[in-house]
Amino acid sequence: MSAETLVQLLYLVSTALFILSLRWMSDPETARKGVFSGVAAMLLAVAGTLAGVAATGGTHYWWILGAFVLGSAIGYPLALVPLTAVPQRTALSHAFGGLAAGLVGTAKYFLYYGQRNAEALAPFIVVALVAEILLGFLTFTGSLLAAGKLQEVAWIPQRPVTYPFQNLVNLLLFAVALGLGVALVLNPLAAWGPLAFGLIVLLSLAFGVLLIIPIGGADMPTVISILNSYAGLSAVAMGFVLNNKLLITAGALDGSSGLILSIIMCKAMNRSFTNVLFGAFGQAQQKAEGGEEKVYKADTTESAAQIMEQASLVVIVPGYGMAVAQAQHKVRELYDLLKKRGITVKFAIHPVAGRMPGHMNVLLAEAEIPYDDLVEMDEINGDMPQADVALIIGANDVVNPAARTDKTSPIYGMPIIDADKARTVYAIKRSKNPGFAGIDNELYFLDKTFMLFGDAKAVVGDLARKLAGEGGH
Amino acid sequence: MREGTPTTAVQGPPHPAGGGHGQLDLMGALFVFMLATFIGIMVIQRVSRLLHTPLMSLTNAISAIAVVGAIIVSAGKEAPTFITVLGLVAIVCSTTNIVSGFFITDRMLKMFKKRDVNGGASR
């Protein structure tokens, strides 16, 4: 068996393992098997590549080993971040992925250019190269900025940044990059080739920044998914450049995963891709607010605890506020205390609650709340009229009834959790300001709604204490 | 470009871990891409919504398959130093994603537990 055949066989097995890895993610029961399968696939891929490189006389092995060690040394601490920081960690790793793809593409171009290798720079390969660096570097800066926004780095604006003709500027820059790409495809070995290539790199880097600055926190789940998809597609492009089917397959798996997640996120907000990317959410709404002052009915945790004690079904709706306050462990205490009294407790999970897909589920799982009680929006909504209490913890837009009724609202048409159909609503809110998108929430002004102002962790902790203190068993 | 010297393969220097015999199999590659995308979409659609965050960190790790390209670039014998350096930096980035992606996915997945038999309320 030739070395080449061996390499391809290893790649074949690796591809199968990658597919199985994602297949096993369909169920929490088998999901960990998916991770092991993914690790095995990656080890085979690396082993196969090293074998192939060795067979054709590679070099720099010590350096490569050093790079592995350094990468692992950076990667391992990144795996230990608190789970509330998972969205920014994810964005950061999209950035690394984009950078890797961009660098490999750059290296390949300059390698072929230096060799004056017209064959290797066939038009199709240059198309793939340009796609690779465009997607790679755009993902790099875009994800870095997204990570910065999520981490709330001081000098990165949290609010969407908009300026006149923003989309026009972006489109123009994109057109310039595209034009340079076409020129490069037609004359890959021209004297100005490296210059054009460098300009495309710079434009891609700038483009990543420009795409992300107008995007607000509420749109982060979609944006992270789109960047996920781009990172995968840049690996696909690399696969075309290197004519490597393993890269194409694994990249396509990642790309389609990002695509599906973005579609789910967009549907959950009743918005289109273009609207998320070019819409600059969170700007127009403030103007729409009327002048009249509405009054919140604040309540004490004591009476909230009393009401909850009488309930037979309590539905908890968590949102980003729970994550910020790291309240999930206190929520678990509350959950336990209510359960002990024979009260049914369910969690209503909106697909875009939090800052990335599935964010709430992971936090609640961390607090050891069994996943059987985490219920998707579509399923829980049928039960909402039977709920005695809906307890809203740091969620806002995802329970705003304006999405159903108010055609002028920016979130009109977005599917929401019908918290307003519960008999009584308790909403925990940090301050009296409107939520992230700056939209007033009618839910808070309903007759049946009572506000519990304060940090989510403190308020839930208080509630739990009141419940534990009174009676018990 | 193809009418150049017919004796050389379309793909310039042989890629040890590249495909076929250095011959660019464009159509084959496009087929693979198309099929893999369909498989990806079908498999991902079945992923439980509970697991979307771990799914994303898992696919992060999987997209670090770019390490393959980075190794090929870094190990090239005739490449100028700056190209090797670019390749090595790409290896560092990819390895970071591989290690952190798989570890954190597993860490998250370990937390997902079904209700235990005795009611789940006890710790």
Automatic annotation (TrEMBL), chain A:
Domain NADP transhydrogenase beta-like stretches: 8-464
InterPro entries noted in UniProt: DHS-like_NAD/FAD-binding_dom (IPR029035), NADH_DH_b (IPR012136), PNTB-like (IPR034300)
Reactions it catalyzes: NAD(+) + NADPH + H(+)(in) = NADH + NADP(+) + H(+)(out)
EC number annotated for this UniProt entry: 7.1.1.1
Pfam families xref list: PNTB
Keyword Coiled coil: no
Signal peptide: none
Membrane topology, from the record: Multi-pass membrane protein
Alphabetical UniProt keywords: Cell inner membrane, Cell membrane, Membrane, NAD, NADP, Translocase, Transmembrane, Transmembrane helix
Keyword Hydrolase on entry: no
Protein family membership: Belongs to the PNT beta subunit family.
Protein's job: The transhydrogenation between NADH and NADP is coupled to respiration and ATP hydrolysis and functions as a proton pump across the membrane.
UniProt protein name: NAD(P) transhydrogenase subunit beta
Organism of this sequence: Geothrix rubra
Lineage of origin: Bacteria, Pseudomonadati, Acidobacteriota, Holophagae, Holophagales
Protein's gene: pntB
UniProtKB/TrEMBL annotation, chain B:
One Pfam assignment: PNTB_4TM
EC number(s) recorded for this UniProt protein: 7.1.1.1
Domain spans labelled NAD(P) transhydrogenase alpha subunit C-terminal: 30-114
Localization, UniProt: Cell inner membrane
Catalytic reactions of this protein: NAD(+) + NADPH + H(+)(in) = NADH + NADP(+) + H(+)(out)
Transmembrane segments: 26-44, 56-76, 82-105
Membrane topology of this protein: Multi-pass membrane protein
Keyword tags: Cell inner membrane, Cell membrane, Membrane, NAD, NADP, Translocase, Transmembrane, Transmembrane helix
PANTHER family xrefs: NAD(P) TRANSHYDROGENASE, PROTON-TRANSLOCATING NAD(P)(+) TRANSHYDROGENASE
Main function: The transhydrogenation between NADH and NADP is coupled to respiration and ATP hydrolysis and functions as a proton pump across the membrane.
Protein name: proton-translocating NAD(P)(+) transhydrogenase
Taxonomic placement: Bacteria, Pseudomonadati, Acidobacteriota, Holophagae, Holophagales
